Amino acid sequence: MNGLYALKPWYAARLSGVRGALARREVSPDTLTAAGVLCGAGAAGALAWLPAPLAVLPVAVFLAARLGFANLDGALARDTGRTTRRGAVINELGDRAADLVVLAGFLTLAPLWLVAVAALAATLPSWVSLAGAAAGAPRRNGGPVGKTERCLLVAVAAATGWATPVLIVIAAGSALTALIRLGWLRKELA
Fold it and tell me: Considering the entire predicted model, what is its pTM?
């Protein structure tokens, strides 16, 4: 079950021209990682301070850019031969920071405890995948509520104002995604 992650190859192909332009301009992959975090902050700000449904357009644009930068940073590093272990760490930390800052946009809309639970749960699938990779398993992505699905759910909250139900779905779906990835790892590492 890959969820919307199955669209990544198609999306990456659409961004190939952008990657080429960035490579010609010698843009650093780390710059793209930072831009993704800033786009997450933009989405959070729009979610926190604009009423639904006015928030949906800026939130969707910032989240689309956040996903674009998340795709471009690693691809640009590979295309230009600039993959490093340090870059991999920066990429992962940037992705987690962007996830958390987006969810911080809910702090004006929902109880702190629920935002905290959703934020913790949203990081679990990635931590499971990283732990599996550290143990020698292939990196697993996708699942019912991965990064792309979370972005879509945040856009739903921006459109409808349903902050609490969306956070509940993010928390439960992310926990389920982590459990599914743990099941994959159990089979892989057996």
Answer: 0.94
